[in-house]
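From the shared-data thread, chain only:
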Amino acid sequence: MKIAVVGTGYVGLVSGTCFASIGHEVVCIDNNKDKIDNLNNRGVIPIYEPGLEDLVKQNVAEGRLEFTTDLKAAVAASDVVFIAVGTPPRPDNGQADLKYVYQVAEEIGEAIDGFTVVVDKSTVPIGTAEEVTAIIEKVNPEADFAVVSNPEFLREGFAIDDFLNGDRVVVGVENSQAEELMKEVYIPLEKRGVQVLMTRVKTAEMIKYASNTFLATKLGFINEIADLCEKVGADVDQVAHAMGMDTRIGAKFLQAGPGFGGSCFPKDTMALEYIAKENGCDLSIVKATIDSNVNRKLRMAEKVAEALDGSLEGKTIGVLGLAFKGNTDDTRESPAIAIIKEMQKMGASIKAYDPAAIEEAKHELTDVKYGSDEYSVCDNADALVILTEWTQFAVLDLELVKAKLNNPILVDLRNLYSVAEVTTKGLKYYSIGR
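Structure, as tokens:
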């Protein structure tokens, strides 16, 4: 099947490459010529995602994947066109900004040639498929098409496996011809055991928001339980483990930490709250989750200060981690960025290191010194703070860390270590909920 994917950001590039890897002919489209030239001529991908670069090169070499700026030609030659452009939150109200989706819908409408399935792959509010349909009909009343919702459920750092071996594929479709084509798109994954769920369009649009908001709520809940554990002398890791053994709850997303971030959870929770307000519905749990996460990041900066006798004024803090999670260079809504900014407000100087996200962080941070590795940020620092759960941060030479620090203080906001293994090395150890 011939597939076009509009947008070569995170979702578009991963999805397009994976569609090619399961046998489809795929062309990925972007209006950024430099990005397309880098992909075509040098195999340079614009994001950090383990395994993606090799998969792109393999499928390009095998003739199933190509990149272009020519949307019109690519759409006209395709059976299915995926819209995978950004839907960032509006700064004033958190509503998803759909200007890029609408712009692409117009361009697709002008280029359609023969029956075409237009797929909303971007995370979009309920009712967007209807709006995309209206846009295409307006620019091309003769267009033969159907709009489908097919939300993505990709975790950064694990996106390829999530696509090829995910829990489910959700397709919102109300046109029989489009349904048959979408089944054909995903037959290779069904044969691998991935469940493909067909729903009505608005149901599919809601599933994405409901899923991400529930996971965000789960994270917010365990973070608050961690705070209570500290007060009463309980161990949040053991609490979470026991909770996760209950099949009604499940173990995933019960890891206490400095708050959630990234391109999905903050944006999607705010967007769902806005949708609810627009429809006269009070989602008090969702609002509490958003507020809890904002407060969480401020509280983590205070926790660092408490480890240094209540003040960060004039102190140098070594920081490990800038991305919102390990295995990605994504700093969007990263707790690490927010915590660093708050520590700077409290008078701290920051030395930071991240294996992949330093260049991205430079767009958001000022007056930060960047280290060349995890130990360089320890030199003459008054404390070392772990903010992102990169695997290499969990196997530090703690004796070397202690030798480099001015004060033997390790603040682990990801609970990467046990209390015993750190304290036996002579470090003062501060973790979450223990």
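The mean pLDDT is 96.
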